[in-house]
Amino acid sequence: MNPKNRKIRVLIAKPGLDGHDRGAKVVARALRDAGMEVIYTGIRQTPEAIASAAVQEGVDFVGLSCLSGAHGHLFPEVVRLLKAHGAGKVRVFGGGIIPESDIPALKRAGIRKVFPPGSTTGDIVDWILNARLPVGEAHGT
Amino acid sequence: MTDPKTAARKVLAGDIRAAAALMRGLDDGQPSCRAVLKELFAGAGRAHVVGVTGPPGSGKSTLVDRLVGEAREEGRSVGVVAVDPTSPFSGGAVLGDRIRMGRHAVDPGVFIRSLATRGSLGGLSGSVFDTVTVLDAMGKDLVLIETAGVGQDGVKVASAAHTVLVVLSPGMGDDIQAIKAGVMEIGDIYVMNKADKEGVESLERSLRLALDGRPGRDGLPRPVVRTEARSGKGVADLAAALAGHRGSLLERGLWEERSRAMARAAFEELVEAGIRSSLEKKRASDKAWKSLLEGLACRRLDPYAAARAGLRRLLR
Ligand SMILES: Nc1nc2c(ncn2[C@@H]2O[C@H](COP(=O)(O)OP(=O)(O)O)[C@@H](O)[C@H]2O)c(=O)[nH]1
Ligand SMILES: [Mg+2]
C-alpha cells in the first residue's frame, strides 16, 4: 500500500450561533499545511449536522470551535451523537473561548483535548499527530 | 473488519456507516476494502451520474445544494462527491463545498462526501470512481460530482458522468477562461448561474458564439439554462433539462454507450495508476532496471531496446 495515499482526515465545525469563523479557518489551513485533509462545514452547525457529516466524511478527528459560550452543552452533544451513530472512535477536540475551569467537565464528557485561548495552530497539529489512531481505524476499516 | 460479503450487503442495504468506512478504505487503497467493492460491484450501475464543473466561484456548490433539494422533493435519493485540489506543497487540502450544502446534512436520503485529488496525474482521482460506485450501490438515484473546471480535473469529469453540467457566471471574463480550459467540448447542459448579476447578456452571447449550435458528444442538442442558485430561481428548469438529457440517452439507446465509456475511463485510470506505481517501485529498487539504465548510459543498449525490456519487466 502506498503510504502517500493515507491521509489524516479532520472535520472542522462551528456549532452554535456565533458567526465568527476566522479562527476556525486559520486552524483548517494550518492542518492542511501539515498535510491533512480538512473538511470545513461553515458556521452555525447543529450537533446533529456535525455528527452526521463526520460519519459521511469518514474523518479521524472532529475539531469544534465555539465562541458563544455554549460549549458546555454543544461539545458533549457532538460526542454523544457520534457514539449514537457508531462513530465513537472519532476523536473530538475543541477550542474557541473556553475558560480553564470548564475543561475538566468537557474532558469527562469525552472531549479528548481542549485548546484554551492562546494555543497555537502548531499545538493543535502536534496533538493530532500524537493522538491519531492507525489511519482508517476510527471507521472500522 | 467484518467479512467482505457482510460489509457489501450492508452497503447495498444503504447502511451509511458501512458505506463511509468503505469509501475511506478505498481512498486509502486498503486491499480489504477492494474485496468489499468486488462483492458489491454487480449491484451498482443504476444511478444517474451527473458531473458539475466550471470555474471556481461560479456557484457549483450552491447549485448542487439546490439540485439535491429538487431531487428530494421528488423523493429521489442523492449522493454528492465534491472534489477539491490537494495542495502540491503539503499534500493536504481544505475541502469546503459542504458549507453550501448544510441543510442536507441530516437528511438520511442524502450522502455527501468530500474528496481531495491527492495528486492523481492528469485529473480525477481514482477514488472518485470508487466513491460513485459505493453511492450507486447504496441505491442513490442521482449522484452529483462537483469538480473545479480548471485544467484536467474539470475536463476529465466528463468521462465519469452520464450528463455534464458546465456552470458559468457573469463577470471577470469567466467565459473566456472556460473556453480556454476546454469545457466548451464537454458540456451536455450549459448553466449561466448568477443570472441576477450584470453581464449575463454578454455571457450568453459569448457562450452561444462558442457553442455555435454544435451538438454535444452524443449528437444531442445542448441547452443553455439561466439560474440563480442563491435564490433558487431557474433551478426547476435546470432539473427538467437534466431529466430531459437522461430521457434522451435512454430513448436513443445512448445510456448503455455512455455507461461503457464511464467504465472504460475508470478502468484506464486504474491501469495507469498501476503502471505508475510499478514504475516508481522499479525505479527505486530493481536491480535489472538499474542495469538497463546502465546499458543505456554506456550505449550498449539503444533507447527502444531498453524501453521494450523495461516494459516487459514492468508488467511481469
Ligand atoms: N449573486 C449570486 N451569487 C451566487 C449565486 N449562486 C452562488 N452565488 C455565490 O457565489 C459564491 C460562490 O459559490 P459556490 O457555490 O461556493 O461556488 P463554487 O466555487 O463554484 O462551488 C458564494 O458566495 C455564493 O453565495 C447566484 O445565483 N447569484
Ligand atoms: Mg464548490
Blueprint of the fold:
The complex is a heterodimer of chains A (141) and B (316).
Chain A lengths: L8 E5 L8 H12 L3 E4 L6 H11 L3 E6 L4 H14 L6 E6 L6 H6 L4 E3 L5 H11 L10
Parallel strand pairs in A: 1-2, 1-3, 3-4, 4-5
Helix pairs in contact in A: 1-5, 2-3
Chain B lengths: L3 H9 L3 H12 L3 H10 L7 E6 L6 H14 L4 E7 L8 E3 L14 E7 L9 H12 L4 E5 L5 H5 L6 E6 L5 H7 L2 H4 L2 E4 L7 H12 L12 E3 L8 H17 L2 H32 L1 H11 L5 H12 L2
Parallel strand pairs in B: 1-5, 1-6, 2-4, 2-5, 6-7, 7-8
The structure holds guanosine-5'-diphosphate and magnesium ion.
What does this structure look like?
The complex is a heterodimer of chains A (141) and B (316). Chain A has helices at residues 22-33, 47-57, 71-84, 103-108, 121-131, and strands spanning 9-13, 37-40, 61-66, 91-96, 113-115. By secondary structure, chain A is of the alpha/beta class. Chain A has one domain (3-130): Cobalamin-binding domain (Rossmann fold). A five-stranded parallel sheet of chain A has the order 2-1-3-4-5, sandwiched between helices. In chain A, helix 1 crosses helix 5 and helix 2 packs across helix 3 (71-84). The radius of gyration of chain A is 14 Å and the shape is globular. The two termini of chain A are 14 Å apart. Helices cover 50% and strands 13% of the residues of chain B. In chain B, helix 9 links the parallel strand 7 (189-192) and strand 8. The radius of gyration of chain B is 22 Å and the shape is globular. At the A-B interface, helix 1, strand 2 and helix 2 of A face helix 2, helix 3, strand 3 and strand 4 of B. Strand 2 of chain A pairs parallel with strand 3 (93-95) of chain B, so a sheet runs across the interface. The site of guanosine-5'-diphosphate has 16 residues of chain B, from helix 4.
